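Quick question, first post here. What does this chain look like in 3D?
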Amino acid sequence: MKTILTVLMFAIVFLFGCDTSNDLTVNPAVDNSNTQVFKLIPLPKKSALWMDSVFTISQLIDGSVGGRIIMANYYISETGDSVEFEVDLRIPAGAFQGSETITITVDSDSAAVHFYPEMVFAEELRLFQSFEGLNLENMQTGTIDFVYMCNDGSIELIKKNGTQIVVPQGIVRVQNAKLLHFSKYGWIRKHINGN
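> Answer (accepted):
Ran it through. Tokens below.
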């Protein structure tokens, strides 16, 4: 009985310990062990009728009050399939001083979202984001993650409540990602040993 309780306690400490770990910065090409390679998950190419479509939204937010910005849209890929995405950004009161026009733009090539202007926050913003209709064939769910993409090309793992990946439908979702600064956030695929 003691052995079972010890194993159970170790598992609980391990699981909850992962949630409190510091954010990590990793080179997108190779990590410290030189065995993991990271690639952005591409968006399916747009059909000719949607080629010039840019998906963006801007909203004036008073930092002392906070607010919420929601963008939901879709496009048709060159194969005729629908690619849908949703971004739900929740800004708490006191996140920044003054008022700022916050702009959210979906990346044109990868399953990522840009946030402007680049700024740092006093309180964590919460992000709920999803893409549906991606080509995730031959990708294992454990190799897919949602990250902050630095300007220098490196990535930073961020705290979040969880991700949902459904390979057959090409769905990736992040729930309650904690943002302390703006730039580009999106989905990567981790290749282990070059696979």
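Helices lie at 2-19.
The two ends are 42 Å apart (CA to CA).
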